[in-house]
């Protein structure tokens, strides 16, 4: 039983770390590209990137200001930051190494490839164009790992733990991005003033690779109320919280000893379905997302209690 618990924990954290690396690469790339869409007199905020990953204290210990290059170093390659892309992939590789007999060989090889890619990134983060290419390669490499695991790993309890970690991490990042980017993306501009409102909410969607799917689903211009409804309550878009919770529920149903976990998921789903986040002002939206984050922490704690 202890061996099964160890394997379950490794698979769960492998899913979380891979998803974290991919999501972190996404938000860095979107922030870089956003600068091209803004007038020259509007300064792009890099502090929100630090806010999203909740690493303000650690960042301030090692860097003097949240300029573009400092944030890029901290987020991408800094060994002192356990949430950097490099540190996250080191952890993902270590979890995969200890369960090499459980996951397909091709997945292990691809994890090694993306780790080596991340380790050699120091020279690429200096230049914005090279940084974009590097981060895009990280995203594509992670998607390749997800595809390999989905297509070649037996969909047993172990695979459910992998999916569970991926989706809980994805829910965490989706809510973080919504919370921070909806309030502080452009520090020199009054919140949500035209002509910047459209650009700001497009960046929120692009951080989650949701812009095209939003336009396909909503068929209206990008605006705050509809983006919030789409990213929180849509049950078909993979990075929307509504869809993620359906996936988490399915994972728990494929596992034993799941009564309490399923109860927590159902309570969160009911809270989300009954809410009208698009009508909330920023301070109330922040409180609403805080409640969701606490519920996600409870899900993580219950997973650890029941299985690890």
Folded structure, characterized:
The chain has one domain. It is 73% helix and 0% strand. It is mainly alpha-helical. The protein is globular and about 55 Å long. It is built from 14 helices and no strands.
Q: Indicate the multimeric state.
A: single chain
Distance between the termini: 10 Å
Question: How many domains, as an integer?
Answer: 1
Overall mean confidence score, pLDDT: 88
Biggest sheet, in brief? Answer: none
Helix-strand pattern: HHHHHHHHHHHHHH
Kindly state the percentage of residues in helix: over 70%
Strand content: under 5%
Total DSSP helices: 14
Q: Name the structural class.
A: mainly alpha
Can you tell me the residue ranges where pLDDT is under 50 for at least 5 consecutive residues? 185-189
Tell me the total number of β-strands. Answer: 0
Shape field: globular
Whole-angstrom Rg: 19 Å
Topology:
Elements: H1 2-37, H2 47-52, H3 56-62, H4 68-76, H5 85-98, H6 105-119, H7 128-152, H8 157-184, H9 196-207, H10 211-218, H11 224-233, H12 241-253, H13 259-274, H14 282-307
Helix pairs in contact: 1-5, 1-7, 1-8, 1-9, 5-6, 6-7, 8-9, 8-11, 8-12, 8-14, 12-13, 13-14
Q: Can you summarize this structure?
A:
The protein is mainly α and 308 residues long. Helices cover 73% and strands 0% of the residues.
């Amino acid at each position: 039983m202890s061996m099964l618990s160890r394997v379950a924990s490794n698979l769960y954290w492998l899913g979380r770390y891979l998803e974290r690396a991919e999501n972190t690469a996404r938000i860095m790339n979107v922030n870089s590209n956003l600068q091209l869409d803004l007038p020259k007199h509007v300064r792009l905020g890099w502090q929100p990137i630090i806010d999203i990953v909740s690493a303000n204290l650690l960042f301030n210990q090692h860097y003097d200001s949240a300029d573009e290059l400092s944030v890029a170093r901290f987020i991408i390659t800094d060994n002192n930051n356990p949430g950097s892309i490099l540190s996250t992939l080191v952890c993902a590789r270590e979890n995969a190494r200890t369960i090499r007999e459980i996951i397909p060989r091709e997945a292990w090889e691809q994890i090694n490839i993306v780790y080596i890619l991340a380790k050699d990134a120091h020279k690429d983060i200096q230049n914005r164009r090279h940084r974009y290419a590097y981060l895009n390669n990280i995203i594509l490499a992670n998607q390749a790992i997800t595809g390999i695991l989905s297509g070649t790993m037996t969909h047993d309890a172990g695979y459910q733990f992998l999916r569970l970690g991926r989706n809980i991490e994805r829910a965490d990042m989706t809510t973080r991005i919504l919370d921070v980017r909806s309030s502080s993306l452009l520090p020199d501009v009054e919140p949500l003033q035209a002509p910047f409102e459209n650009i700001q909410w497009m960046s929120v969607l692009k951080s989650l690779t949701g812009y095209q799917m939003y336009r396909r689903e909503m068929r209206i211009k990008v605006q705050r109320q509809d983006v919030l409804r789409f990213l929180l309550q849509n049950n078909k878009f993979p990075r929307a919280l509504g869809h993620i919770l359906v996936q988490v529920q399915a994972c728990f149903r494929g596992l034993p000893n799941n009564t309490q976990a399923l109860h927590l998921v159902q309570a969160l789903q009911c809270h989300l379905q009954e809410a009208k986040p698009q009508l909330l002002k920023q301070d109330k939206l922040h409180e609403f997302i805080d409640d969701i984050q606490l519920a996600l922490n409870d899900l993580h704690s219950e997973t650890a209690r029941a299985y690890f």
